[in-house]
Amino acid sequence: MTERVAVIVGGASGIGWATAQALATDGCRVVVADRDRDAATERASALGAPHSAAWVDVSDEPSVERLFDDVGALDIAVNCAGFSTLGLITEMPAEDFRAVIDVCLVGAFIVTKHAGRHLRAGGSLVQISSLNGRQAAAGMSAYCAAKAGLSMLTQVAALEMGPRGIRVNAVAPGFVHTPLTEPAAAVPGVVDDYIDNTALGRAGTPEDIANAVAYLCDSRSSWLTGEVLDINGGAHLLRYPDLLGHVTRLMDQAP
Ligand code: NAP
Fold first, then answer.
1. pLDDT tens sequence across 138-197
2. How far apart are CA 182 and CA 193, in angstroms?
3. How far is the CA of 198 from the centre of ligand 1 (A)?
4. Are 95 and 87 in contact (CB under 8 A)?
5. How confident is the model over 87-130, as pLDDT tens digits?
C-alpha cells in the first residue's frame, strides 16, 4: 500500500484512530480528520510525517467538501463519525432523532458524495455501520435506523461507483471498548450481557475493527464491494443486550 492517500473521518478517537494507525503501518499517507481539531492534530503528530490533520464536521457539508477538495486525489476514505442517544420512541423529541440521523446517515452520505468525487480508480471507501444496523435495540431507534440506512447506502454507492473501479463496503462492529461506549460499559450488566450473547465470549477492541477496515482497503479484497462485514464475535447470531433495561435498573437504584 505504498504512497496511497487515506482520509479517516472521525480519525482522532476509538475505531478511527486504530484505523489511522493500521493504515499508516500499511504504508498509506494518512489524513486524520475529526471535529475535535486538537485531538486530530495530536494524533497526526503522533503518527509523524507525512501524515496530517484536518478539521471536519460531517453534519456541515461545506467542511466535508473543503476537506476532500484540499486533499485532492485519494485512494482510501474511511468514515467513522457517529454517536447514539438512548430513549423510548414515545418519549423522544424529534430533534434528538434527527441529530443522530444527521451525523450517522446524512453525514455518511455527505462523506460518500465528496470522497466519491476524488477517489481514484482502484480506490476504497469504508463506512462504519453497526450490529444495530441489523439487530434492534430498545431505546436506540435513531441509531438503529441510521445504521440500517447506512448499510443500504453502502450498497447503492458500491453500485454507482463500481464502474469507476471504486469499491464501497462497510464494517458493522459489535460492542467495542472506545470513548463512545465508556458510559454504556460503566452500567452494571451491559458488557456481561453482550458477552453472554456472543459466540466468542468477549467484547471487541478498536484493533479488531481496524484490521477488517485495512483488509477492505487493500488489494487482498479487490473483488469485494457492496458488503457489510459483521465484526462482532458472533453477536449477530444471538440477541442484543438489554441496554435500556440495565440503564433503567441503575436509575431506579439511584437515591
Ligand atoms: P469515538 O471513540 O467517539 O470516535 C468517533 C470520533 O468521531 C470522535 O473523535 C468524534 O468526535 C468524531 N465525530 C463524531 N461526530 C462527528 C462529526 N459530526 N464530524 C466529524 N467527526 C465526528 O467512537 P467509536 O466507538 O470509535 O465509533 C466510531 C464509529 O463506529 C461510529 O460511527 C460508531 O457508531 C461506530 N460503532 C461503534 C461501536 C462501538 O461499540 N464502539 C459499535 C458499532 C459501531 P467527538 O469525540 O468530538 O464526538
1. 999 999 999 999 999 999 999 999 999 999 999 999 999 999 999 999 999 999 999 999
2. 15
3. 23
4. no
5. 999 999 999 999 999 999 999 999 999 999 999 999 999 999 99
Mean pLDDT of the chain: 97
Domain segments of the chain as ranges: 4-253
Task: Specify whether 215 is catalytic.
Answer: no
Q: What is the pLDDT of residues 66-87, one digit of tens each?
A: 999 999 999 999 999 999 999 9
- CA-CA distance, 170 to 252, in Å (whole number)? 38
Question: Which ligand 1 atom is at minimum distance from the Cα of 204?
Answer: 40
Backbone φ and ψ for 85, nearest 5 degrees, come out as: -120, 170
Q: Is 244 helix (H, G, I), strand (E, B) or coil?
A: helix
Tell me how far apart the alpha carbons of residues 6 and 73 are, in angstroms, rounded to a whole number: 10
Q: Is there a contact between 147 and 133 (Cβ–Cβ < 8 Å)? A: yes
User: Counting atoms of ligand 1 from 1, which one is nearest the CA of 18?
Assistant: 26
Q: Angle at which helices 61-71 and 107-118 pack, to 10 degrees? A: 20
pTM of the model: 0.97
Q: What is the dihedral of CA 187, 107, 64, 79, to 10 degrees?
A: 60
Question: How far does the centroid of ligand 1 lie from the alpha carbon of residue 140, in Å?
Answer: 16
Cα-Cα-Cα-Cα dihedral sign, residues 221, 227, 231, 237: negative
**From edge to edge, which strands make up the β-sheet containing 5-9?**
52-55, 29-34, 5-9, 74-79, 119-128, 167-173, 228-231
CATH topology for the 4-253 domain: Rossmann fold (3.40.50)
* Cα separation, 54 vs 16, whole angstroms: 14
Residue 122 zone, left/alpha/beta (φ > 0; ψ -120 to 50; rest): left
pLDDT band for position 3 (50/70/90)?
Answer: confident
How is residue 176 annotated by DSSP? Answer: B
